[in-house]
Amino acid sequence: MKHATLEAPESAAVSTQAPPRRFSDLPGPPPWPVVGNALQVSLHRMHQNMEDWVKVHGPLMQVRLAGFHVMVVADTDLIGQLLRERPETFRRPSRMQAIMREMGIPDGVFVAEGEHWARQRRMVMASFAPQQVRTYFPALLNVAHCLRARWLHTADQATEGAQDIDLQADLMRFTVDAISGLAFGVDVNTLQSNDDVIQRHLDKIFPTIWRRAHALVPYWQVVKLPRDRALDESMRLVNGAIRDFMAQARVRLQAPERRAAPQNLLEAMLVAADAPDSGMSDEDVAGNVFTMLLAGEDTTATSLSWMIEQLWRNPVALARAREEIDRLLATPEGPLPMAQWTPEHLAQLDWLEACIHESMRLKPVGPFNLVEALKDTEVAGVPIRAGTPVLLVMRHDTVRDEVFPQAERFLPERWLPEAEHLAPASAKRVSMPFGAGPRICPGRFLAMLEIKLAAAMLLQTFDIAAVDTPDGRPAQEHMALTMVPVGLKMRVRRRTAA
Ligand code: HEM
After folding, report:
1. Judging by DSSP bridges, how do beta strands 60-65 and 68-73 pair with one another?
2. Regarding beta strands 389-393 and 68-73, do their DSSP bridges make them parallel or antiparallel, or are they unpaired?
3. Which fold has domain 23-494?
4. 77: CA distance to ligand 1 center in Å?
5. Minimum CA distance residue for ligand 1 atom 43
């Protein structure tokens, strides 16, 4: 495999005159004795620490974290190339797989590797093809109706025009209901019942994976703190719920006609697993149901939260999104009722889609990705050993003026033909919020549909009175496996037409 070469920045301590460079010669923040760079990063701001270092040391550097010698790559061409070299040359970090297994999460497509991953990926991809996602639309509409009802209730309850909505929490209810309905074919409805059992348990998992991945000592293997015991209990309950849903689905699948036309993700996976040569077990199915719940909830809700904040802070873009929805989701008598919306209607919302791309460029929920070398190899001509972690900084080229002019500004028009000069020709290969290569996010079409649906519902039904943060400034970024905004509160008013 031929590798791209990177020019070292002028500030870098490495001469490009003497290839091959050694990994240990790469520039990087000076490590401290014993602890390396570990004490120079903050757990919940690690993405910003990396981004800051890249600005100083260049797009190919080294850091030493938690006993690991980590290569850091921020050049998007090179990132795309490494992501495409999976599963043969790079894998997801083995540590993440070990931590998830220890927590009791069975392997799903996110952590599986090699042939096991390839088999799971084939099964999962079939369930997420754009055509298949369209069949989920009625169920998604139903969940969007519940979110609308919840916010209408909040708006109408307000005595002085508006009441606070905990934006991230409500959107997590929306996405957990959407994905559970889709995965299990049952109505979980945390939006209306206030019974957020599954959501409360899932919410503990990402932060725990993040904390444990960066813990200096695996103390929980020796002594469990209350939060570790709470996590064990959550894992027991979620795994128990998944097994119950699987048992119910198996009963339904005894009917040959149901087996011939499975109705949801879980049934489809069970049928696939039962095929004689599938190589899939019930454990694999459980792992993938768990994976969908985890991968589909936080990411989509967080992307929506960020976009709503961006729109609120950019009134011109917000007004254009509202105008587009009023124009395209309309009848001669007035707004087109949500019950009549179709995926084709949402597909026409070009400005809204551009807002999503722009928001994900500035606020990717995964500002970095991590891969691990499976064998001795080289990156940009620099040899690395098998097992070397390579941290990919996804938000570097995406926020450089040379690549996206006026990069700091939220300008959705750069994603449309009207303002192509504001984006590089290959914009979608530079901004990669869903990753790239064979392991690109299989849920991306579903996620885009959910985001458009919720945003269109919001703008058709409500006026946004405010999107506030605790300190009145743009929301702070808090890293806990995904990059979430801190403390967003939204206030809405029922539009007179609603
Ligand atoms: C806006 C929402 C979402 C974002 C930003 C997002 C982002 C990502 C990213 C960055 C990756 C890693 C890709 C790579 O390593 O190249 C990924 C993987 C994955 N995502 Fe998503 N995702 C979203 C929604 C979803 C949804 C709704 C689902 C499913 C219900 C999902 C399921 C998965 C799975 C299963 C993987 C692992 C794929 C593999 O390793 O083969 N994601 N996602």
Report:
1. antiparallel
2. parallel
3. Cytochrome p450 (1.10.630)
4. 20
5. 441
Ligand 1 center–CA 206 separation, angstroms: 14
Dihedral sign computed on CA atoms, order 413, 417, 421, 427: positive
Ranking 17-31, 127-141, 412-426, 448-462 by mean pLDDT, the lowest is 127-141
What mean pLDDT value characterizes the chain?
88
* Nearest-CA residue for atom 23 of ligand 1: 299
Instruction: Give the nearest ligand 1 atom to 394 CA.
Output: 10
444/261: higher pLDDT: 444
Share of the chain above pLDDT 90, in %: 55
441 is in an annotated binding site: yes
- Three-point CA angle 459, 460, 462, nearest 5°: 65
pLDDT digits over 67-85, tens only? Answer: 899 999 999 999 999 999 9
Predicted confidence (pLDDT) per residue in 126-143, tens digit: 777 777 677 778 889 999
- Concatenated DSSP letters for 421-462? GGS-TTHHHH--TT--GGGS-TTHHHHHHHHHHHHHHHHHHE
Quote the CA–CA distance of 246 and 435 in Å, as a whole number.
30
Name the more confident of 485 and 497.
485
- Return the closest-CA partner of residue 392 out of 424, 435, 363, 352: 435
Cis, bond preceding 19 (omega within 30 deg of 0): no
Ligand 1 atom with least separation from CA of 117 = 41
**DSSP string covering 334-351:** EEPPGGG--HHHHHT-HH
Q: How far apart are the first and last CA of the chain?
A: 58
- Ligand 1 neighbours (beta carbon < 6 A): 83, 109-110, 121, 124, 179, 291-292, 295-296, 299-300, 303, 365-366, 369, 433-437, 439-443, 446-447
Alpha helices in 58-166 (DSSP H): 76-84, 94-103, 114-128, 130-135, 137-157
The top-scoring range by mean pLDDT among 14-23, 462-471, 489-498 is 462-471
Are 84 and 400 in contact, with CB atoms under 8 Å apart?
Answer: no
Q: Please name which of 268, 273, 272 lies closest in space to residue 252, comparing C-alpha atoms.
A: 268
Q: Residue 447 C-alpha to ligand 1 middle, in angstroms?
A: 9
Boundaries of every domain in the chain: 23-494
Of the two residues 124 and 9, the one the predictor is more confident about is 124
Number of H helices, E strands in the chain: 19, 14
